[in-house]
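Lab channel / #folding
Pinned by the channel admin:
"Please post every new chain as: sequence first, then the structure tokens as a reply. Keep commentary short and put observations after the output so the thread stays searchable."

First post following the new format, from NK:
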Amino acid sequence: MSIETSSPTLAWVQPDEPLPCVSQAWGLASPAPGLLAASSDLSAQRLIESYSNGIFPWFSEGQPVLWWSPDPRMVLQTQHFRFHRSLRQRLKQHLKSPRFELCFDRDFAGVIHHCANAVRPDQKGTWILPSMVSAYKELHQLGLAHSAEVWLDGTLVAGLYFVALGQAVFGESMFTNMDDGSKMALALLVSVALEHGISAIDCQQNTRHLASMGACEMSRDTFMTGVNQAIHRPGIDWTRQSLYWNALTALDNPK
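Reply from TO:
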């Protein structure tokens, strides 16, 4: 079955059917470039299938689950992360204080709920709906969704969440309640990625903020070549990772 729109036709995927090949995603001349399919189901297993094939969910309240695979794809090559001098100095200063902590997976639920409730000037409402939160929490329980977190005085003040399949890392959303907090969370993620030889972090779609941190567009074919290689490499134990003072050298001098 398919959903008819003005142009072109959007595939409807039943719960027992696989998602279409990404080559069927709508092109740049369409009303929604990168839109691939719609469905009623959203589960951890469906998320594993989608990310393994370069697809992610993104939809608003009142819509079915919409699946996307844009071309080009926004990707942060970890060695190209822009560790700006102001961020470096702010982070080094914070790391001197025992009141400040950087860690992974201490409060995944807290991070995703903060992301869902974050006020963004370029968006009306949130796309991180309850069904989305539930599915990613389930994925977290399977050890495949994680959060990079910033804590101050025992309070979660910034963070981001991401999906990791093997060494393929897919960034999702971030929030902050302090200056440069989300950038610090990203620096934490990039530093650990560099330490373990992870070369890329998927950013999905082009934004000015991501571009300012060093992300750039690449073709979907090139992106998928990297994903297909990375998902077969052994994953890392994210919960045991952290950013200490000497780890900043990985950001200053990426391999």
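NK: Confidence is low (pLDDT under 50) at residues 1-5.
TO: also worth noting, The first strand starts at residue 2 and ends at 4.
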